Amino acid sequence: MRTMLLWSIAVIGLLLFGVFLNIGVYAQSPKKSAYVDTVRFIQYLDDNVALQEIKSGNLDTYFFRIPLETVSDVKADPNLKVYDRIAGSFGLLLNPAPSKDDNSINPFQFRQVRFAMNYLVDREFVVDEILRGYGTPLAAPFGVYSPEYLNVLDTIESFGFRYNPQFAQKLISDTLTKAGATNQGGKWFFKGSPIKVKILIRSDDPQRLSMGELVASELQSAGFNVQTDFGDLNKANPIVYGSNPQDFLWQVYTEAFAGTSAFVKYNPIVASQMYAPYYGNMPGAQNPAFWNYRNETLDKLTQRIEFFNFTSEGQRNELLRNATRDGIDESVRIFITQNTEPFVASSTIKGLINDFGAGITSKLSLMNARTPKSSNTLDIGVKQIYQGAWNNVAGCKDAYCTQIYSAISDSATFRNPYTGEVIPMREHWIDVSTKGPTGKLKVPPDAQIWDPYSQHWKSVGQNASSMSEVTYKILYSNWHNGISMDKSDLLYTQYFLFQWGTNTGKGDLTIDPEFTSQAQAALPLIKGLRFIANDEMESYINMWHYDKKEIADAATIWPAEPWEITAATERLVTSGKLAYSSGEATAKNVDWLSLLIPAHAEMIKEELQKMKDEGYVPAALKGIVSVDNATKRYDASINWITNHKNAVIGNGPFYLDSYNPAGGIIIIKAFRDPSYPFSQGYWSSFENPKLATLQSINAPQFISIGQQPVVVSLTVNVGGKPSNDTIVNYFISNKDDKVVVQGVAKPASADNKLGTYNIILRENDTSKLSVGPNTLKIFANSKEAFKPDIYSTVLIENFSRFKG
């Protein structure tokens, strides 16, 4: 949610994107928005109870994985349907802060000790025993079903991580001994005191609880004095992400990610989010009041990926490989498993869309779901109803928030749920022009940017240039409070990015360390905007991508909320009453701003009343918005907060009707306003992805290295029929897990038989293989649905060249 105020390239992160396709709108159905009228999100802490409620008909689905031991029985029940989501992950976040006390050390301040954790944790055991086979080992943020995996496979596999506690303990011993520690009877001491490790284990998740206990046991066996602490997300968030790492409230945290909230083909921010300090997601969170993990190399690498600072697809992928390699080497964040998460729904519910990133929790499912109930209500169980602040700057970090909020506020672009490609949703692309990566376009001198120093919009002047320009028409609608969106909302979004992304010096109150650290990296790339009409604009950016759709997405400006809500929260934050980010809230000892909490909504309402009484118009909108227009907006938002007890005002297919903290229920209702651009059924074509499946593979078990060509033939179906609309990638690793041969199989067109492909290994390929076992991996992807069917086999050198 926080990212929706950022300019698009700085925001792609974990929120859902919109989709705009030439999907037939149902002319016979004039209703706007979703099929259902109401969605109720109801908290169920106990997964087994939630499952029983679905069986009993009291719930329609549960937006959390069901207990793994129940999956077989659930799949056999005709009244239930299982939807697997392959997106989430388990891992460890390690605290790398050095001790402030000369008489103690933090073992994880040493890179080699952190790296040793990759060998100390048995990933296979976690997958096979704790996850009951519902997952795969993971060493980096890109799992085997990620669109990026094929770009980094060789880098990840080169590490060859295997469970090896002896090797891990040797790395630990060598490092700690050099630092002055001693091992006495199998226990580590420093200056006479035991070396302590505090691990915070998530106890609200049975699998993470078991994994945490496993990690604690391994650390104990490695000689540390392990202190275990247990808690849920409410406890963990302020400790892990909102405290000073040098306070050592934690040293190891059993982390989990729900996966991206959209399936993204070229994900520009995953490497930044998982490895780069500047992004604000590493220990210290860029808060100047805290000790912060620093790594300029990772910052530079990941910013080049995030902001498209490359000249070719090959260079971009090399940057990604380097960032992945360095992130694994640093091992501040360690990945353990890619999870296959079984979600369940009543078989009476039709139209759920199983996005390859978000699964059935996506906004598309909520818009397309159909229920036979006369109430036309969808009842959804959730693990937690509220786990962190809802705000559009540095809030809504948890999956529980994003799952709901994605249906409340649209984004300008969406992602195809099966290919990850950008598609416009609340805009039409009129023109996407670029002269990148080496050339420049002239920017019109009357294009504007916000100047946080002079507090005015300024023209870019005669000599401004940019790599790319996007002209697009904006699909406005009414906000949920009844006020029509207009260009003032977009301008305020752009203003906020520059104002809060710039540190103008001493006394600047418009700074949040977490937001500012991300935003300031994007500002030099924004070269100006120009409105041609109220609903048509040009956006100029100094960015290039080999996929023009990514350029259009990067150039997008789009608001998540009415400007008056943002302005009111600015006044509250700059006056020291609230903070946008968790870390800043901790540092200033104030509340973390949440638009959902009634008390905070009331504060916003009071601020709006003050703004009305003052005749206030923000500096960024003076001369653009009249006092009368501003007053109408203030009144509309005040009335909304009075009626709904929240300040969550969006422009999406649902509006947030009510939040009952005591009952653990959030109710959203379909936004039937005629201004909303999409009608019922608009998204129905996404219900059934056309997947590729490998039908037959003819690969020799034995090969002669460096001699005759080797042919591997295979057949592929798409959507159940033989098809050439597939991409077949192959990789061969030698006995040392190093990828030595890779390529793309070609259709065997000689016989004109659809779906037949050949992998041809010539002498220069086979000569790279090692004596003994080599592993061939084949990935077949449909061009319409990027979820590979994977095949692996062993190719063995038959020693023929040594005979005779």
Structural category:
alpha+beta
The CATH class name of the largest domain reads: Alpha Beta
CATH topology of the largest domain: Dipeptide-binding Protein, domain 3
Q: End-to-end span in angstroms?
A: 70 Å
Count of individual helical segments:
21
Provide the β-strand percentage band.
Answer: 25-35%
How many domains comprise the coordinates?
Answer: 3
- CATH architecture call of the largest domain: Roll
Helix content: 25-40%
- Sketch the major β-sheet: 11 strands, mixed
CATH homologous superfamily caption of the largest domain = Dipeptide-binding Protein, Domain 3
State Rg: 27 Å
Task: Write a concise synopsis of the structure shown.
The protein is α+β, with helices and mostly antiparallel strands.
List the SSEs and their pairings.
Blueprint: E1 38-43, H1 47-56, E2 61-62, H2 71-75, E3 80-94, H3 111-120, H4 123-130, E4 135-137, H5 149-159, H6 165-178, E5 182-184, E6 187-190, E7 193-194, E8 196-202, H7 206-221, E9 225-231, H8 233-241, E10 252-257, H9 270-275, H10 296-306, H11 313-330, E11 333-346, H12 363-368, E12 377-382, H13 399-405, E13 413-415, E14 422-424, E15 427-434, E16 441-442, E17 448-451, E18 456-459, E19 465-466, E20 468-474, H14 487-500, H15 513-522, E21 526-533, E22 536-541, H16 548-554, H17 563-574, E23 578-579, H18 582-588, E24 591-592, H19 598-614, H20 627-644, E25 654-660, E26 665-670, E27 692-698, E28 702-703, E29 710-718, E30 721-722, E31 726-733, E32 739-744, E33 746-747, E34 756-761, H21 763-766, E35 773-782, E36 785-797
Parallel strand pairs: 1-12, 2-12, 8-9, 8-10, 23-24, 28-36
Antiparallel strand pairs: 1-26, 2-11, 3-10, 3-11, 4-11, 5-6, 6-7, 13-14, 15-20, 16-19, 17-18, 20-22, 21-22, 25-26, 27-29, 29-30, 29-34, 31-32, 31-35, 33-34, 35-36
Helix pairs in contact: 3-6, 5-11, 10-11, 17-19, 19-20
